[in-house]
Amino acid sequence: MKVLVCGGAGYIGSNMTAMLASEGHEPVVYDNLSKGHKAAIADAKLITGDLSDYNLLVKTLEKNNIEAVMHFAAFIEVGESVEKPLKYYQNNLCAAHNLLCAMEAASVKKFIFSSTAAVYGIPEKIPITENSPTKPINPYGQSKLAVEEMCHYQSMTGKLNFAALRYFNACGAGNNGKLGEDHRPESHLIPLTIQAAMGKRKEIKIFGTDYPTPDGTCVRDYIHIEDLCRAHLLALKKLDQVRELRCNLGNEKGHSVREVIETVKKVSGRYFEVVETNSRAGDPPVLLASAEKAKKELGWKVQRPDLEEMVETAWKWHCENPDGYTE
Fold first, then answer.
1. Fewest Cβ atoms closer than 10 Å to its Cβ: which of 69, 75, 90, 237?
2. Is residue 140 annotated as a catalytic residue, yes or no?
3. What is the crossing angle of helices 95-105 and 54-63, to 10°?
4. What is the 3-state secondary structure (H, E, C) of 8-68?
């Protein structure tokens, strides 16, 4: 299948592009390279463009005979979304609207949307199921939920079949360890901790040590990037049969901040300073997915569930790419 991968030069998008190609699909990357890296997409076809460019989108979809679109081009920094909400609504919601309009114009029906566990806000019950209330507490989560709802109503017209895949904490390096996480700035715990282990950061901070969890630190659900991407391939097939699908993608196993830090220490063999500081407003004690729906609807199964293996693949990539991607 010919698939347009929006944001295909970013962390998840580049891993998805590589997996699509390895499975015999024909990915076309569409990226403005504001966050992505050319070096991450190897020899995949690249269209350098912004999702705000309606004419270029329509031209790209039609010229390349695109049959499905995957969207990974959102901004993802929760804190920044609170400080700059209009920036997030512009890129995450308005740009997605523009993309869906272009898809309708080009008669492309299949759409896979990179959503997030942030649509749930602070959960009332753990584990989180797709029936849990959606009450996002920041513009990032709200913008993602708004796109889901826009897709829902567009699907009701018969012009769109979509899957909204709600990620928990994607991590690790995919494609045999060749495609790692290089966000600038970085905000995710595993790469931040690896930077501390490499001496590129003077310390790693623990925000809050008095949560009602076994060791007092927040617990999160980490999922290897390849397991995440594999679910997208299964969703792509499923869209032949369904008009709408919303699924959590998680490992169904939680790891605390302290566990992650200790795992990085073990894998790296390095000492680094750990500083305990105050908790952050809006940080739930535990975020843990129920992925039963993805298992049932997609036949999906986590193949790389071990945190140590996830960290090992990330550590290997960072050691081989100490300055990240060079372009």
1. 237
2. yes
3. 40
4. CCCHHHHHHHHHHHHCCCEEEEEECCCCCCHHHHCCCEEEECCCCCHHHHHHHHHHCCCCE
Q: Which fold has domain 189-220+252-320?
A: UDP-galactose 4-epimerase; domain 1 (3.90.25)
Residue 120 per-residue DSSP state = G
Q: How far apart are CA 255 and CA 220, in angstroms?
A: 5
- HSE on the CB side for 76, CA within 13 Å? 22
Catalytic residue among 11, 30, 120, 140: 140
pLDDT of amino acid 13: 98
Query: Which residues is 46 bridged to in the sheet?
Result: 29
- Are 249 and 127 in contact, with CB atoms under 8 Å apart? no
Residue 227: the pLDDT is 98
Which residues of the chain register pLDDT less than 70? none
pLDDT score for 111: 99
Q: For residue 282, what pLDDT is reported?
A: 82
Looking up tokens 């076994």 gives 214
d(CA 222, CA 171): 7
What's the farthest any 2 CA atoms get from each other in the chain?
57
pLDDT at residue 98, rounded to an integer: 98
Contact (CB, 8 A) for 68 and 25: no
**Dist. CA 29–CA 202, nearest whole Å:** 36
Domain ranges of the chain: 2-171+222-249, 189-220+252-320
- Under DSSP, the state recorded for 150 is H
Enumerate the β-bridge partners of residue 112. 70, 163
The phi and psi torsions of 302 (rounded to 5 degrees) equal -65, 125
pLDDT confidence of residue 245: 98
* Closest CA relative to residue 150, chosen from 113, 106, 120: 113
Q: Which CATH class is domain 2-171+222-249?
A: alpha beta
pTM of the model: 0.97
| Sign of the torsion formed by the C-alpha atoms of 62, 65, 67 and 70 | negative
Question: For helices 307-320 and 257-268, what crossing angle results, to 10°?
Answer: 50
